[in-house]
Amino acid sequence: MGYIDGAEVAKHDNKKSCWIVLDSKAYDVTSFLHEHPGGAPIILRNAGTDATEEFKKYHPLDYLNNYLPSGALLGPVDPNTFGQLRQLKDERAAPASEIDTSKELPHISMCVSATDFEKAAKAVLPHKSYIYASTSANTGLSLKDNLDDWGRVNFRPRVMRNVGDVDTRRKIFGHESPYPFYISPMGTMGAIHEGAEPEMYKGAVRKGIHTVVSTASTKSTEQIMQSFVEEQEKMKGASPTRLFYQYYMPVDRKKAIELMRIVKKCGYKGLWITVDTPVLGKRTADRYLQAEEAMAVGIEEESTAEWETGGDNAFAPAMGGRPVQGQLSPHITWEDLKWIRKEWEGPIVLKGIQCAEDAKLAMEYGCNGILLSNHGGRQLHTAPSALMTLCEIRTYCPEVLKKIEVFLDGGLRDGNDVLKALCLGATAVGVGRPFLYALGAYGSKGVERCVDVLAEELQTGMRLLGVTSLDQCRPQMVNASRLLNEMWRPDQFSVQSKL
C-alpha cells in the first residue's frame, strides 16, 4: 500500500466522494456518511482534512477498527504533503474588536456556587460542546422540574446543639468517601475538555470522591482505569476514590458479556446498569444544531433522524448523545438480571428507576442498589424528578430504603440539596453537569473547586440543621409536603411485586 498525496485527499471533500485523514492514514468514508453516529455533517465539514484531533474528542482511535466499513482504509498519507490537505478555519476565532470581554473566563475563585461553573463554561466552550452538555428532552420540562423540586423541600432545623465538629463521611458499597456525593457518569468528555475523562478523575482522586464512569466515554474502559491507577499512585494510596461503571447493555449478548468481563478485569467496583434508555429521547437543542450543520454543508434536504445511531468507543452507545444501532438494547428485561448476576459478582445498581413499583422489583430481583434518575431530563418528556420518586418510594415501599442502597441524581446544584436527599433516605447523590462545566472551564482544578464548593455548603447546612454526622439526618428534619401533595395518589394503591 503506497503513500497517498495530501493534495489528492483534499479533492474528496463532498458527499459524493468523502475522504478524511485519521492518525496519518487516509480513509474513504463516503458510504459511512449516513451511518455515522454523529450525523453526516460533522464528517463532511472535515472532508479532505486531517480530522484526527476532532475525532479524538469523541472516540478512541480503535473505533476505526470496529465501525468503518471494510476497504475504507486507502493507505498512509505522504508526510511531505500534509500541508496540501484542506485546512479548516477556526470557527471560534474573531477579530479583537468583536470579542465580548464580558464572556472572558472568570478567575476560579469567582466560582462560589455550583451554578457559577456553567456561566464560566459557556464563556469558553465551543457552542456545540455547550449544547451537548446542556441539552434536555423536548421542551425541557423534565430538566426544569429536576432543578425546581429541590426548592420545594424545606428544612426543619434543630437549635441549641453542639455542632462544632461535623462528619460528612459516607460509604458506597463499603467504600468510604469524605462526602456523600459522587461524580455522575457523563459521556464524550473529550468534547468538553482535551484532557477528557483522565482530567476529570484526576480531580476526583485528589478530593477522594467516588466516580461512576460512562460506557460512552471518549477514552476506553482500560485507558480510564490506567490513568486512574497512575493518579492514585501519585497520591501514594492516600485517596479513597473508587471507580464504578455505568453499563449500557449491547443488543449482542456476546458483546454485552465481553464488556462486562473487561470492566471486571479492570477493577471497577460496581456495575450501574442504565435502564431508562431503550431508545434515545428527543434532544431538541441537538436537533437544531444538526439541522444547522446540515445546511452548512449543503445537505439540508436530508432527514437528520437517520443520523441518530452511532457510538463513542468500541462499546459506547452514544456520540454527542446519540445511541448506536445495535449497541443500545431496547430488549432488556428483568429476566436479564439472572444471567448478568452469573457474570458479575460485585454490586449491581439499576440506573434510571422512576417509580416505586420498579424500585421494589429491583430489590426483589436481588439488586444491591438503585439510582433514581430521569437521565438529567434528557429522556422522557415530563418524567418525574428523582426527588419525587424518592418521596414515592418512602411513602409506598419504605422497606426498599432499608434493604438496598438508594442513590439519586438530577438538578442538584447545592450542598444543601445533598443534605435534603440524605434526610429523605438516600445513601448518596450524584452530581453531573456542575462537574462537567467545571472540567470544561478549568480542567481538574475546576473539578476540585466544585467539590470544595459543595462540601462547604454541606458542612454549613449540617451545622445550621443541627446535626454533626450524616446518620443523624432524619425525614422529620425536612418538610416535603409540597411534593407529597402533588404525588400520584390512586384511591387504592399498593406496590405489586410482579409486572
Summarize the structure.
InterPro entries: Aldolase_TIM (IPR013785), Cyt_B5-like_heme/steroid-bd (IPR001199), Cyt_B5-like_heme/steroid_sf (IPR036400), Cyt_B5_heme-BS (IPR018506), FMN-dep_DH (IPR000262), FMN_HAD (IPR037396), FMN_hydac_DH_AS (IPR008259), L-MDH/L-LDH_FMN-bd (IPR037458). It contains 19 helices and 18 strands.
Description:
A hairpin with a 2-residue loop joins strand 12 (318-319) and strand 13. The termini are far apart. The chain is globular. The strands form five sheets. The chain has an eight-stranded parallel β-sheet with strand order 8-17-16-15-14-11-10-9. A four-stranded antiparallel β-sheet has the order 1-2-3-4. It is α/β, with parallel strands linked by helices. It has helices at residues 6-11, 40-45, 52-56, 63-67, 116-124, 127-134, 141-149, 196-207, 221-234, 253-266, 284-296, 336-343, 356-364, 386-396, 399-403, 415-423, 433-442, 444-465, 481-486; strands spanning 13-14, 17-22, 25-28, 73-76, 154-155, 170-172, 175-177, 181-183, 211-214, 243-247, 271-274, 318-319, 322-323, 348-353, 369-372, 405-409, 428-431, 478-479. Helix 8 runs parallel beside helix 9 and helix 16 packs across helix 18. The longest helix has 22 residues, at 444-465. The protein folds into two domains: 6-84, Cytochrome b5-like heme/steroid binding domain (Flavocytochrome B2, Chain A, domain 1, Roll), CATH 3.10.120.10; 116-278 and 329-486, Aldolase class I (TIM Barrel, Alpha-Beta Barrel).
Distance between the termini: 58 Å
Beta fraction = 5-15%
Radius of gyration from CA coordinates: 24 Å
Shape: globular
| Order of neighbouring strands in the sheet with most strands | 8-17-16-15-14-11-10-9
Number of domains: 2
The percentage helix is 25-40%
Structural class given helices, strands, pairing? alpha/beta
Tell me, rounded to a whole number, the average pLDDT. 87
Superfamily (CATH H level) name of the largest domain: Aldolase class I
| Individual helix count | 19
Low-confidence stretches: 91-101, 303-313, 318-326
CATH topology of the largest domain: TIM Barrel
* Number of distinct beta strands: 18
Q: How does the major sheet shape up?
A: 8 strands, parallel
Given this structure, which CATH class of the largest domain is correct? Alpha Beta
CATH architecture group name of the largest domain: Alpha-Beta Barrel
Keywords: Heme, Iron, Metal-binding, Oxidoreductase
Family: Belongs to the cytochrome b5 family.
Domain Cytochrome b5 heme-binding: 1-78
InterPro entries: Aldolase_TIM, Cyt_B5-like_heme/steroid-bd, Cyt_B5-like_heme/steroid_sf, Cyt_B5_heme-BS, FMN-dep_DH, FMN_HAD, FMN_hydac_DH_AS, L-MDH/L-LDH_FMN-bd
